[in-house]
Write a structure and sequence with these properties.
The complex is a heterodimer of chains A (about 425) and B (about 200). Chain A is an alpha/beta fold. Chain A has a domain of about 120 residues: Periplasmic binding protein-like II (D-Maltodextrin-Binding Protein, domain 2), CATH 3.40.190. Chain A has 18 helices and 16 strands. In chain A, the strands form five sheets. Chain A has a five-stranded mixed sheet with strand order 2-1-3-11-4, sandwiched between helices. A five-stranded mixed sheet of chain A has the order 8-7-9-6-10. Chain A has a two-stranded antiparallel ribbon with strand order 5-14. In chain A, helix 4 crosses helix 16 and helix 15 crosses helix 16. The radius of gyration of chain A is 20 Å and the shape is globular. Chain B is an alpha/beta fold and about 200 residues long. Chain B has a five-stranded mixed sheet, with helices on both faces. The longest helix of chain B has about 50 residues. The radius of gyration of chain B is 25 Å and the shape is elongated. The termini of chain B are far apart. The chains are: A alpha/beta (about 425), B alpha/beta (about 200). Chains A and B meet through helix 3 of A and helix 3 and helix 4 of B. Chain A: It comes from Zavarzinia aquatilis.
């Protein structure tokens, strides 16, 4: 306990989702308090409100979609104001779900319960082609926000399988809790979102999970802690203390023995308000793929192990590469520099190094080269990283970002959606 | 001077609040006000309204959906963005504090927007006060019920009269520095546990 230390108040916005767990648990398990922080959590219902209230100074930090701090720093948001990423909130946790009708078509075209992105993508491509032959309307897929990992993962998967996300399907935005209803009501035909909102459709009998983003890009990043750049600059000690508290919370969340408590807490009406059975899948990584029973999906999601909270510059720059790929931003030395400087592993090292946390020596890696769990160089050699391959075998070298973007056949802003 | 012809769209799932705002704008002289209270916003409805100004409550999860529609929908012919001018921080702050976000069609002048926004903000604030008042009343009513039930338990178990039961609750609350409703709740919880869950 550090009761003698003066208490600092940090205001944090969050959306009730499984991947806000570290932030929520840092507060309710007392990790923040032990660091002398009065962590005030404010629940929001849209990313737009999170974005605005960070920009206006109502929040010092927030649970954010990983591309949001990059977009804010690049001036792509209404009120401007740079936001930094000093910590990641875990890896994995997303999946892609389709309606019963689309699943039926896919199963006729060879889809099974393997969750294999390539095989599932080929089956979906057959459904898309068949609909075109019959003159039926394009399928509509939903993501949670234009600047979301879901938007880029879904587009990446579709495009790599020969489905042009700009012209072969329609992309739209739906809030996570409404996905299942929108699917049931026939407003959308599929979506990419974090758990429990995929399993919720399976439990309700309105959809099938075809693959997980952990299969599209292994150990891929998801939400982050976004901090207002000026606040972080003026309050370095408070930020360090918050990162330490969140590190302890991440260890708590990753401990299997805490899973039942985590499920009970987050599924309650106070937070996500879903059936604990739907929540359990995302916490344990036992996902019902295709029309099968829940099965253990390797490395579906983790909160702490394998440097899951380390803010890799290569993760941030991959999102930036996709923003450039789809025409949301122009790739220039200046924009690249802004994106790179918004990711702050230096602050993470400064906060967690003194705790003896194993830190990788490098802050960026060539994504897509690790095929299995691999030990990496650290000061004391205790760190393993998870596999990080893309399902199509492509490799992302953050030093060759221009070539990477240019190398995609399907790219560009495309015709706008109706 | 009021721009009576300016087209205003209010998107709010809370129908009562939406009509409070609509009424306020009409009273201020804006005749062209439309309300969308659906939980599923449709491009069609927005296109029909063809708004110059759009207000959306900040609690609305559909903000992300609407922003996406404003950006990409071909059907919406005029570009809609947040606020006129990001430099006018006071106006933005006042709106967000009140719980409303405003989207403006490209080209609308700040001077024309200001009185509309002021009206919407004051109505949002008025509604919040109304809701707080209502919540307080509801809470007080519920607490009264809990206290009455606790008095009943005490009267039965200790064979005392109502006045005495009330005095006992009040005295305990004072001694323990708690609110009388909290003590009453403890009595009910204890009675429930002791009777094995039977009321």
């Amino acid at each position: 306990m550090t009761a003698s230390r003066p208490t600092v108040t940090i205001r944090a916005g969050f959306i009730p989702l499984l991947d806000a767990a570290i932030l929520i648990l840092a507060r309710i398990k007392g990790f923040a308090e032990e660091e002398g922080i009065d962590l005030v959590l404010v629940q929001e219902s849209s990313w737009a409100s999170i974005r605005d209230r960070v920009a206006l100074g109502h929040f010092d930090v927030a649970h954010m979609l990983a591309p949001m701090p990059i977009a804010a720093s690049l001036g792509l948001t209404p009120f401007g104001g740079a936001v930094i990423t000093p910590m990641c909130l875990g890896l994995g946790g997303n999946a892609i779900t389709v309606s019963n009708a689309v699943w039926y078509g896919m199963s006729l075209a060879g889809a099974d319960n393997s969750g294999d992105p390539k095989r599932m993508g080929e089956a979906l491509r057959a459904v898309v082609a068949e609909r075109r032959r019959r003159g039926q309307s394009r399928l509509t897929f939903a993501v949670v926000h234009p600047f979301s990992s879901h938007n880029y993962y879904l587009r990446y998967w579709l495009a790599a399988c020969g489905i042009d996300p700009r012209t072969d399907v329609t992309l739209t935005v739906v809030p996570p809790p409404y996905m299942s209803d929108a699917l049931a009501g026939g407003h959308i035909d599929g979506y990419c979102v974090g758990e429990p909102w995929n399993s919720a459709s399976v439990v309700a009998g309105v959809g099938h999970i075809v693959t997980t983003t952990s299969a599209i890009w292994k150990s891929s990043p998801e939400k982050v802690l976004g901090a207002r750049a000026d606040w972080a600059e003026q309050n370095p000690e408070a930020l360090s203390a918050l990162l330490r508290a969140m590190h302890r919370a991440s260890l708590w969340c990753d401990a299997p023995k805490n899973a039942p408590e985590l499920v009970e807490l987050l599924s309650s009406s106070r937070y996500l308000d879903v059936a604990p059975s739907a929540m359990l899948a995302g916490v344990t990584g036992r996902i019902a793929l295709g029309d099968g029973q829940p099965q253990a999906v390797p490395d579906f999601r983790y909160f702490a192990k394998r440097a899951a909270t380390f803010p890799w510059i290569s993760h941030g720059l991959w999102f930036f590469s996709q923003m450039a790929r789809w025409g949301q931003i122009e790739l220039t030395p200046a924009t690249l520099d802004i994106a790179r400087r918004s990711i702050r592993p230096d602050l993470y090292r400064k906060a967690l190094g003194p705790l003896g946390v194993a830190l990788p020596n490098a802050s960026a890696k060539v994504e897509g080269t690790l095929t299995m769990e691999t030990p990496v160089a650290t000061a004391d050699g205790r760190l393993f990283l998870g596999p990080d391959g893309f399902f199509d075998g492509k490799v992302f070298d953050p030093d060759l970002i221009g070539d990477y973007v240019a190398g995609f056949e399907i790219k560009g802003p495309g015709p706008q959606e109706g | 001077m009021v721009d009576a012809d300016i087209k205003i769209l209010v998107i709010d799932e809370n129908r009562i609040r939406a009509s409070v705002i609509e009424e306020g704008l009409r009273e201020a002289g804006y005749a062209n006000v439309r309300v969308i209270a659906d939980s599923r916003p449709m491009v069609r409805a927005i296109v029909d309204a063809d708004p110059d100004v759009v207000f959306i409550d900040l609690e609305n999860p559909n903000r992300d959906v609407l922003e996406h529609m404003f950006q990409v929908s071909r059907a919406i012919s005029r570009p809609i963005a947040m606020f006129v001018d990001r430099s006018d921080r006071d106006m933005i702050e006042a709106a967000v504090d009140a719980g409303v976000s405003a989207y403006i069609v490209d080209g609308l002048k700040k001077e024309r927007l200001k009185p509309i926004l002021d009206t919407a903000i004051s109505r949002f604030n008025a509604f919040s006060r109304m809701r707080e008042e209502l919540d307080r009343t509801k809470r007080a009513l519920e607490e009264r019920k809990v206290i009455d039930r606790a008095k009943g338990v005490l009267m039965r178990l200790r064979a005392i009269g109502e006045d005495e039961a009330h005095a006992l609750l009040r005295r305990t609350a004072m001694n323990e520095n708690r609110r009388i409703a909290e003590v009453a709740q403890s009595v009910l919880t204890a009675a429930d546990l002791l009777s094995g869950g039977k009321p």
